[in-house]
Amino acid sequence: MSSAPAPKRRSAAPRFDSPEQEAYLGLWRTYDRLRALEDEVFGRFDLTAQQYNLLRLLRAAHPDPVPTLKLVDRLVSRAPDITRMLDKLEAGGLISRIRSSKDRRTVLVGVTGSGVALLDQIAEPLRACHERQLGHLSVNDLKTLTDLLHAARLPHEPGDSPWR
Fold this sequence. Notes:
By secondary structure, the chain is mainly alpha-helical. The chain has helices spanning 19-44, 49-61, 68-74, 82-91, 113-134, 139-153, and strands spanning 66-67, 95-99, 107-111. It is elongated, with a radius of gyration of 23 Å. This is Transcriptional regulator, MarR family. One of its GO terms (molecular function) is DNA-binding transcription factor activity. Pfam families: MarR.
């Protein structure tokens, strides 16, 4: 009794078109997985990651208010509707806005005491979240990762970006 030859296996199509695509999709997937953990934390405080980032930037400048356009430049990710985000934070009593006396077109934004208190309340849960996200990496690995991410985005950052 003879057995039929095993059918030839077709080689699988490559999963990625290029090393750049593989790196990009890996970065995107990683962002999605890590962001899900962060969304849980911010959801407990009725905030988004962008709203948190904005409050964090305002606290760094506190007690000085910051012009809206400077805030936009400093955000981690682009905010297509900064006005709506500011409206929600102001309605929650977390920020205040005033028109500049020097230039009425400029709106100055500052964090309120309630905003600072909320940031203080978020600090420990967020630190624990970051530990869950990346605590399995060594300090050297984190430094390498940070350096590689900087190198990847550097050609795409505006010349005056604080992220350069």
